[in-house]
Write a structure and sequence with these properties.
Number of helices: 14
CATH architecture of the largest domain: 3-Layer(aba) Sandwich
Number of domains: 2
Helix content: 40-55%
Strand order of the largest sheet: 1-9-8-5-4-2-3
CATH superfamily of the largest domain: Type I PLP-dependent aspartate aminotransferase-like (Major domain)
Structural class: alpha/beta
Shape: globular
Bound molecules: pyridoxal-5'-phosphate
Radius of gyration: 22 Å
Order of helices and strands: HHEHEHEHEHHEEEEEHHHEEEHHHEH
Amino acid sequence: MRISFSPPDITQKEIDEVVDTLKSGWITTGPKTKLFEKQIAESCRTSKAVAMNSATAAMEMTLRLLGIGEGDEVITSAYTYSASASVIHHVGAKIILVDTEKDSFHLDYQAVVNAITNKTKAIIPVDIAGVMCNYDKIFEAVDYKKDLFRPSSELQEMIGRIAVIADAAHSFGASFKGKMSGEAADFTCFSFHAVKNLTTAEGGAVTWRDILGVNNDEIYTKFMLLTLHGQSKDALAKTKLGAWEYDILSPAYKCNMTDIMASLGLVQLQRYPEILERRKQIIEMYNHAMNSVGMDVLAHYTDEYASSGHLYLVRLPGKDESFRNRVIELMAGKGIATNVHYKPLPMHTAYKNLGFKISDYPNAFDMYKNEVTLPLHSLLTNEEVEYVVKGLKESIKEVDAIYV
Ligand SMILES: *Cc1c(COP(=O)(O)O)cnc(C)c1O
């Protein structure tokens, strides 16, 4: 058997919708992107959504919308993918990494409180594996140090405290205490990259909560300008006969979604309840098997929250990095693709060069050192899930035999 890690789940319906777009005469940002945005906002229960070409762009444009840049600090987790932190660097602000809570994949809420200074303008919590952070605790942390907050833009002032920008690349469709991912943080950034739960090949979106005294249409228009050259009219508006003239209001960026991508997204969104359900079934199969052999696994469904079931994270109790790496190699030998989520940012060259040291993030290192991510996607059959479980058990046994 060959079991891939996270192949895209594309049916004839997606293919037909893409072909429809290709034949329609309009392939870039247009009616399908607008419809996709409307449906994303509906499923997140927000007033609006803006689609872009990635979650990275969505996070960066949100920082720019908020007017965050040089001289500012933005907090995120050491235990994440580079994009959560690199966007802070892109806008010229200082990256502040905090450790995870002991035995948790989420950031340490007390460490967040400690990291807040009078330069802090935003925090980017990461909804790892599709499990949303405890946003009650994040808002508590932010409120606790409210007196230190010095707004440097009108929007920051209207929010009145540090802005919470969720890296929800994994958590579309998840909920926490009755709130959907998308309506919990001030701004929420989703990814529709090829390996994510819902895909447009590349793609992303941002949703936001209503801000008292701020018009949502105004935020929407600002995002349109930021993502399309600061141009006063989008390409579709310009195609109206005679309506050639436009103005460039700022030398902005280019990260809009195309209708080809959106057509994939529209069908994926229709199919999404089934996709989530299948992921849940697989997670329950894995949980059953892992509990019986004493593995630590991340809980995806509790009374407090339901995840989007994006990644299945397993920790090999009492094992170290080399043991884990050997297990991954043996599983690869059996045709099973696995991964590690994540090698903490302070272990990567770019972040070492920025001065970060893994010794300052002991909890994140402990989570990383014995973590294995098993294949989890809606194309997996029950037999394949069983094969993965068997492969993991055998691989651990084989490495154990070498180690003693
Ligand atoms: C995939 C991912 C991103 C980036 O998403 P893109 O759409 O590729 O920009 C950001 N954060 C995390 C945690 C991710 O896994």
